[in-house]
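[step 3/7] fold_predict: job queued, chain A
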Amino acid sequence: MEKLVSFHHFNPPFLQNPSTSKLHRTQASNSLALGITSPLSKIKFLEELGGMGSLISVKVLHARMIKMSNKENADAIGESLIKFYLEFGDFRSAAMVFLLGLSRNYLMWRSFLDEVRSFGGSPREILQVFGELHHLGVLFDSKVLTIILKLCTVVNDLCLGVEIHACLIKRGFDMDVHLKCALINFYGICWGIETANQVFDEMPERKEVLWNEIITLNLKNEKWMKALELFQSMQFSFVKVNDSVIMKVLQACGKVGALREGKQMHAYVLRYGLETNLSVCNSLITMYSRNDKLELARRVFDSMKDHNLSSWNSIISSYAAYGCLNDACNLFHEMELVNMKPDIVTWNCLLSGHSLHGSYEGAMSILRRMQMTGFRPNSSSIASVLQGVIELGLLKFGKEIHGFVIRNGLNDDVYVVTSLLDMYLKNDRLRNGETVFHTMKNRNIFSWNTLISGYSFKGHFEDAKKLLSCMLEEGIKPDLVTWNGLISGYSIWGRNKEALAVIDRMKSSGLRPNVVSWTALISGCARNENYRDALKFFIQMQEEGIKPNWATLSSLLPVCAGLSLLRKGEEIHCLSLRNGFVQDVFVATALIDIYSKAGKFRCACEVFRKIEKKTLASWNCMIMGYAIYGFGKEAISLFHEMRDSGLNPDSITFTALLSACKNSGLVNEGWKFYDSMSRDYNINPTIEHCSCMVDLLGRAGYLDEAWDFIQTMVIKPDATIWGALLASCRTHKNLEFAEIAAKHLFKLEPYNSVNYVLMMNLYAMSNRWKDVEHVKNLMSKAGVKTGPVWSWIQIDQKIHSFSAGGKPHQDSGEIYFELYQLVSEMKKLGYVSDTSCVHQNIDEVEKEKMLLSHTEKLAITYGLMKQKSGVPIRVIKNTRVCNDCHEAAKYMSLVRSREILLRDGLRFHHIKEGKCTCNDCW
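[step 4/7] structure written:
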């Protein structure tokens, strides 16, 4: 191709001879000609360049250069000319010198572009000069065209790039590999990756650099599978891959879970002896860990002869992300032992791992160690720690972090400031949150959404609406997250009508409610125990064509657990299996909960054991499952297993453990765990823990000790404490402490009928009928009425309810006939009615008749009549089961050889062959 040299075209106009200034292309020399014949004259010439004081003097000197023929120092002098033209604002002349005057290389264009920008110029001016020369018929070599294509990519000049491609095709230009790469890159960025792939496919000759370029471009565009396909095609073409592409392809294998392809890449690395390349090995570690193959990642790490900082960071990050926090910390110590100093990335890996997996105290400890070793937390560190501050409610420490952020100039980071805003809102400091929001320099949609959600969650709906209006005034359009925050807030506060109104408003704004919108509504209903509405919204969601995700199912499963809808829960389990959600830890935890509460404890255990990445919530749920069945020793054993896995307990763990101890009568173990909370884990006992301890001591008959415990409590006793004491007094017929507890309860819960009924029962058991009447009068004066007592059983998708004093069941005649026969058979085995459970002043015969009308007896009897042989009988009762019904259920299981699962208002009773899992400790 012909090349036309430059400088005749930039001869300053006032110096050009009109008769000679216009030259033919063939007359032009091929490079910048400088006729400098001696070293002395070269130095003098450069000195003259250094003393340029005006644009005219630069052009005069430029004209002299054009007339000279010597090429020595041409690039140095050309660069100086460009600099002076730029300094004097003549961007056009600078571009001319660059395009036509230098022996250009492929790296120089970027520095030239930076220089143009630094002097206030635009890349488009360079392209404009190129266009002028191109239309004048100047033919450029591949180096110039490569640079111009790169500039077209930078400024997104679609037309010029395509025009260059068309000229190349028309002239049959033999492109070098750099020009081909520039062309593919231009199409990939400006026209889309599909177009780039098409251009690549049409290229006949594909060298190593070109393959690497197209694979990298696909990876940048997150076309992971296409990149893997191209890599395979590259192998079939017997083209060698460079190390950087191998690392990027391994990254793709990690992103899309392509373990098989990742292993093939590993084989490629071994085959070509690349296992000594630390960067490649580090990428292998990351690939295996992202594919949940931590063992293989560790094997790669251990097989490496040398480790650099990135190697240690990769393996520590893998363990921390996987939740193996003890292993991550051990690796950190090993790293220090081999004199490899951790950097901020190492510390942040540990911080994020602990924060992500609920070890917030661990995250705080790591932060302190990090600062002691001289590392200053950055924005990532702060964001991880703030999550712990939120969960632990450490507002004071959060304020200290806020001060650190301001002092260290991190308050310009939107991510950090939004995290601070979130921290204040979740610690009930709305005013502090507002201050943070209003002082933000760069508010984005995330900041607005955080504050709107914060107002909604706290029930400040008017403030949320005002903020939404301000947001619209500032020209920021609400997105799905904005509306979903409002929906979630309304549903949490039980305002379902307003939540549905927001959904309608979303639709009118052109946005379609998504799975998050409906899940927020279902979750709010479940939280408020509004189970029927939750199921109704789930059906409506499906009717609108929205598929549930793992969050929907994990919100819906507690609804099934609350209603003990085992069949519906099993259907959701099947749905989870079909959609691959069963491995999701939240869904799995919810499944454990429903199976535990619906009487299929073995299924709950199976689901738990299949969870690969067990979170603290999973362990807590399983321990609580053991607790409600009265398997105290098993719960304690599971706790020790959890500790061995590297997880530290939280407040909920100890609530579950103490519940297990109280339901199993393990007094000594209960004391040990209670004392261990503050001593070993720095967890301050809450009112729930204290209530468990009072219940544990009271049930075991240590009422004096329970009383002493209440007297020495740091926390003021509430209704749960006095309620636990009163229930224990009823069990052990202790009127002295019962009257004290009742006195407090009548003040704290004047409208709770349960407390009055318990006292009446106690007085009735002691034949103090005047006191029974006195309590009845107190109830009447306070306007307190006893709530409905009911039991229900599900048979063939239909719920059968039995209510005390309500409408009798349609088959009540058959049920009572069957029950009389059952009692007759039970008495032959030793059953004796416990008439002390009837708290009315009537004779013993009447008391026995009244016991037969207890709703749980009727429900169990109906189940024995209608359920298929061998199917367990599952009955739900809304209040505590009485002693007689509990004893009767054990005899019924013996007479009919059936399992009976009775869930009352307090716990679960699994009765089989005349024995109950509660061991009569309830």
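[step 5/7] annotate
The beta strands are 790-795, 798-803, 873-877, 900-903, 908-912, 915-916.
The mean pLDDT is 83.
exit 0
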